[in-house]
Design brief:
By secondary structure, the protein is of the alpha+beta class. It is 25% helix and 27% strand. It folds into 2 domains: 241 residues, Spore Coat Polysaccharide Biosynthesis Protein SpsA, Chain A (Alpha-Beta Complex); 138 residues, Galactose-binding domain-like (Jelly Rolls).
Length: 384
């Protein structure tokens, strides 16, 4: 790590980003744009971004470093962005060079070097902050990723070793910094035969985290098409990425209404967010139980032709309402909470042609408890 940054006070989070040169397209600057824009001025005091210039080509490293310095001179000067250079090959990579090159397996060499790159980065970052987040150099982040991570850590009361903010590979994995040396050691021990994508899973299982903790919606999306392995295309996308679900399927100006719910509320995603505007969603803070309701009472009677409700991140995926109904009512039904028009959700979605006059309220009712949170992405009321 560059010497001028050694004395900066340890913060809350270190973000590690290894990068190497790609012949087709470079992504590191757009990735940094996305990450840096998600940090407020105050939050930047709590974060360190370590760019590991992992390419063995010195000219490539110098060019990448210069591009970042020119674009973010103040962030480099204040040590928000730091650079990590690779050690001499003879100091850290000799097994890779001596044993694997003879095998002439480009993918194996690439994967093994990547494992050792990850390990070196983890070792160098172990004393910089309380927590460590592993990213890659070809992704995008949602605008509030840092506050979401911090709030999740603060609120988490059960045992955890690794929390995941991206479903794919070794992206978006959060660890305590005190565990980095042990994780790096395991990756080094297995570097020839097991990708880090699998090693970290065995690591947290050995430390009594029984299953993965995937925080949904996820906060980072893989956007790179051209892999750092020459000639390889990488088209994988995280289906649980929040940025993919911010926009609603339909943009309807719903009639004014009062909204209430018996469900536990995540106060970053309020009930009105799924009903008002073209973006946003409602998310519970605890799994829903049978009998829970989400109630919309219109300020005046409405003549309605269609009602569209989508739960979950996508059709049938991520925080859907597994078993539930949509109920409609006029003045009498809404007062008594006795409904006659009832539609059942299919894979978390209702798209009902109702042709109902003098509608006063709608209600989403859970008819079976589920062990997952519920997201209501959108409620759209087509008035006539």
């Amino acid at each position: 790590m560059e010497g001028s940054c050694q004395n900066k006070r340890p913060g809350f989070l270190t973000i590690g980003i290894p990068t190497v040169c790609r012949k087709k397209q470079q992504y590191i600057l757009s990735t940094l744009d996305s990450v840096v824009s998600g940090l407020s001025r105050g939050q930047r005091q709590e974060v360190v971004i370590v760019i590991y210039l992992a390419d063995q080509d010195k000219t490539c490293r110098q060019n990448t470093k210069m591009e970042i310095r020119l674009k973010y001179p103040n962030l480099v000067r204040t040590c928000l962005i730091r650079f990590l250079h690779p050690p001499k090959v003879s100091a850290f990579y000799p097994p890779l060079i001596d044993k694997l090159k003879a095998e002439r397996d480009k993918k194996l060499i690439w994967r093994s070097k990547q494992n050792l790159d990850f390990s070196f980065l983890l070792i160098q970052c172990q004393n910089l902050s309380s927590y460590y987040l592993q990213l890659e150099d070809d992704l995008m982040a949602v605008s509030r990723f840092y506050s979401t991570i911090k709030n999740t850590v603060v609120q988490r009361v059960t045992h955890w070793v690794c929390m995941e903010f991206n479903e794919l590979g070794f992206i978006g994995k959060l660890f305590r910094s005190r565990d980095l040396m042990a994780l790096a050691t395991m990756i080094i021990e297995w570097y020839e035969h097991t990708p880090a994508d699998d090693t970290y899973i065995e690591f947290y299982k050995r430390r009594n985290q029984k299953s993965r903790i995937l925080i949904q919606p996820t906060l980072f999306q893989h956007v790179g098409l051209h892999s750092s392995l020459e000639g390889r295309l990488q088209k994988l996308k995280d289906p649980y990425f929040e940025g993919d679900i911010e926009s609603k399927e339909t943009v309807i100006r719903n009639p004014p209404a009062n909204i209430s719910t018996s469900m536990k509320i995540d106060f970053q995603h309020l009930p009105r967010h799924c009903y008002e505007g073209s973006k946003g969603f409602f998310l519970t803070s605890e799994p829903v139980i049978s009998g829970d309701t989400f109630y919309v009472l219109f300020h005046s009677l409405q003549n309605v032709s269609r009602i569209f409700v989508q739960t979950g991140l996508a059709l049938g995926k991520g925080h859907v309402l597994q078993e539930g109904v949509l109920e409609l009512g006029g003045d009498f039904e809404c007062t008594k909470r006795m409904f006659t028009n009832i539609y059942k959700f299919s894979r978390g979605v209702i798209d009902a042609t109702v042709n109902r006059n003098n509608l006063r309220c709608i209600q989403i009712r859970v008819i079976a408890s589920q062990n997952t949170l519920l997201m209501i992405k959108e409620i759209s009321i087509y008035s006539v």
